[in-house]
Amino acid sequence: MKTIEIIQAFPQPDGKILRTIDKDACEQAVVDILKGGKQIVREIVDLILEPGNGDDIRPRHALHATAIRVGGKERKMERKEFSSVLAGMLTDDRPLAVKGFIIRQLQICAGPEQAEKIAPFLTNPNEHIYEYAAQALQAIGVGTVVHFRKAYPDASGDCRLTILQALGVLEDKKSREYFLNAVEDKDLEIRLAGMWGLMKIASSKDMGVLLSQSEKEKGWGRIKATAYCFELAEKLTVKGQKEEAGKIYRQIKNSRKEKADNYLRQSADLGISLLK
Amino acid sequence: MKKIPISHTRRSFLTKSATGATAATILPRHILGAPHIPPSEKYGTALIGCGGRGPGTYSQLCKGLNVELVGACDVNLDRAERFSQARSKGKAEIYQDFRKLLERKDLDLVAIATPPHWHTSISIASAEAGMDVLCEKPMTRFVAEGRAVVNAFKRYGRIFQIGTFGRFGRSKDKHAVLKHKIMSSGLLKDCRAVRKKKGGLKVKQWSGTPGIAPQTIPENLDWDLYCGPSPWKPYESRRTGGTHRGYWDYEGGGMCDMGQHHFDPEQWTYAKDYTSPVKITPFAPPAHPEVTGMWAWVELKYADGFKFVMESTEWGPSYEQDEVRDVSMNDLSIEDQKKISEMPNPEPLLSFAEAVKQRKEAGGHPEAAHRAACILHLANLAIRLGRTLNYDPDKEIFINDEEANRFLNPPMSAPWRV
Q1: Of A63, A184, B401, B416, whose CB count within 10 A is highest?
Q2: Which of B128, B231, B288 sits opposite A223 (nearest CB)?
Q3: Which fold has domain B6-167?
Q4: Prior bond to B415 cis, omega within 30?
Q5: Chain A: residue nearest B253 by CA?
Q6: Can you give the residue ranges of every domain in chain B?
Q7: Which residues from chain A sit within 8 angstroms of residue B290, using beta carbons?
Q8: Closest chain A residue by Cα to residue B403
Q9: pLDDT for A44-99, tens place per residue?
């Protein structure tokens, strides 16, 4: 069966919505796509256009349905093959917006084996593809951290912030120096991402840095930085480092003297009471 | 009227003790020293998200409280301006970015009525800034967000009330109270009750429209800020202004729009405020990547055997897998029936206003709101994934299903994170 015939199983909007969808036909189409392998997947991807350049509702729906349906433990081999074919298309000559869509499907189905193909987009500032790449790699998991570590030194602007945050999401202890340097950055969001990363890796060595920076920050920065101090204290408590957690709470209590900070002093008291 | 001193409002602590970062524990209701608030004093308030439900949500926030609107915030400044004019004759300052609003020292209470993809980040930031929150439903966009909100409100001793109120009526209804007592007693083993919600979930109304070409961003809209924690997408008007409900990026269809109204009271009645279903079975066709669509039914089974069923009635076959059946005293032995009759009634649920004044937990508190939102998220995930999912309600992850788990905590766009 030809690709164009297979994807006819997916509906066009009736009125504005996809109300005429036929479950059995769509499920069979997914089976046919997986059976057809590399060639059919490529032909579907070829039908996907940049937004605004024409109708590609059916191929987008078909590709997404396949990415979702290859999940689940019974389909490990199919998932591996499909993801590998899809990731291979990221090196083709295609519009960035289409590659962005492919990456978002890989976020659902890819494994660490496909990370190498996604990672080059981490430092591409165009059309938010760095964001899609970072989110896909974070979803794939901790095995992808090496790509973030490698990309960070060369990244700038939004790409840099996104990568730094991803290193925090993945709780990468080896990125501690990146986090520490970020805390001294002139950009507030980079500083906050650095503090958040330090909180996520939860080392008592960094509590002084977090506390001191939280006292320097003003306004929104102070609100968030203080929150990261509280969260670090909770993480240290869970790790059994109650003495260190207590120091954080006491420092917050002693340094937030304004009337408006009463709730912070009370939160610190609550934290201290839970250490007993 | 005199402005309420800060130490008496947002700076007074919730009379609860947190019991650990992730514990889902019913906390004792005792007073930690909340000051008496003279009725002549005012709470400083703000609304974040001034379109659609915004004004109604703000009215709910103010009910029973003496308030003064000090801020109106919306990514579309025109809306913030309109709301400020309507409710304060323009005296309330307008903001496009909620971060600036939350820096104010005279703010005590915040109503959040943005699209749901923003609920978590703004709720948490409000708690971190010392404010009590009334947040529109659905509480969150995905499961992990809810746990983060619960933890933040415990950490800061703030009050949170979800913007649905059906449980308050249930908690005063003698039939619902009896069911609540039976279910919370632990005496009912192997529960065979099946509660079906037939229709009312606006499946077609809030299905999205795929394939719309990108449009020019309106002058007063900060589109990047609108997208916020959700993946950035080219602007198209249907992604905003109510029709946002039809996109996975922002809400999750009629399921999430209406589900918390339907299932929050049910969850209270059947004593499921501190747990979630363990097995979720859907009947739905493959979903579109961007827009929400059709589904027929979803069955959600709890560890004790109790089932919620949603039947769309708008597409596909009806649910015939099990018979609808309620719980009753007849399910118990005579001896256990006697125990139920002797059980005290549950404590009355506190309204948001009473919770704020007494510094006690509100009836629609974060844990309950999170668990009710989870019913919708788990149903939607089963619909999207097209297979039966097994869920661990304590760890809040799917069991042996790595791909499904990717949907429980999808990465946010920087600088937003939980």
Answers
A1: A63
A2: B128
A3: Rossmann fold (3.40.50)
A4: yes
A5: A17
A6: 6-167
A7: 60
A8: A71
A9: 999 999 999 999 999 999 999 999 999 877 788 899 999 999 999 999 999 999 99
Question: What's the mean pLDDT in A196-201?
Answer: 98
Task: Give B48's strand partners.
Answer: B73, B112
Report the chain B residue with the minimal C-alpha distance to residue A129.
Answer: B232
Strand intervals (E) in B74-118:
93-95, 109-112
Spatial separation of the C-alpha atoms in residues B251 and B377, rounded to whole Å: 10
Min Cα–Cα distance to chain A from B260, Å: 23
Contact: B285, A21; criterion CB under 8 Å: yes
Alpha-carbon distance of B359 to B34, in angstroms, equals 6
Which residues of chain A does B387 touch, with a Cβ-Cβ cutoff of 8 Å? 72
CA-nearest of A18, A16, A20, A111 to A61 is A18
Tokens representing B17 are: 């003790």
Torsion of CA B283, B288, B290, B295, to 10 degrees: -20
Q: Which residues contact B154 (CB under 8 A, 6 or more apart)?
A: B16, B18, B19, B21, B366
* Length of chain A (residues): 276
Residue B11 in contact with partner chain A when CB distance is under 8 A = yes
Q: Give CA–CA dist A147/A128, Å, rounded.
A: 18
B210 to chain A: nearest residue by CA? A57
Supply the ipTM of this predicted assembly. Answer: 0.97
- Phi then psi dihedrals of residue B36, to 5 deg: -75, 130
CA angle B388, B392, B397 (to 5 degrees): 85
**Chain B neighbors of A63, CB-CB under 8 A:** 289
B271-293 pLDDT, tens digit per residue, is 999 999 999 999 999 999 999 99
Burial of residue B33, with CB atoms counted within 10 A of its CB: 0-12 exposed, 13-18 middle, 19 or more buried = exposed
What pLDDT, on the 0 to 100 scale, is given for residue B260?
A: 97
Residue A92 to chain B, least CA–CA distance (Å): 22
Query: Distance between CA A247 and CA A237 in Å, rounded?
Result: 11
The whole-number pLDDT of residue B1 equals 38
Calculate the dihedral angle through the C-alpha atoms of A52, A58, A59, A62, rounding to the nearest 10 degrees. 140
What's the start-to-end Cα distance of chain B, in Å?
39
pLDDT score for A76: 85
**Which amino acid, B135?**
C
Q: Which of helix, strand or coil describes residue B363?
A: coil
Which residue of B246, B286, B406 is in closest CB contact with A27?
B286
Instruction: Indicate yes or no: CB of B410 within 8 angstroms of CB of A139.
Output: yes
Would you call B403 and A72 a contact, using CB atoms and an 8 Å cutoff? yes
pLDDT band at B3 (very low <50, low <70, confident <90, very high): very low
DSSP codes joined into one string, B40-62: T-BEEEEEE--STTHHHHHHHHH
What's the CA dihedral at A37, A38, A44, A45 to 10 degrees?
150
CB proximity B383 to A under 8 Å = no
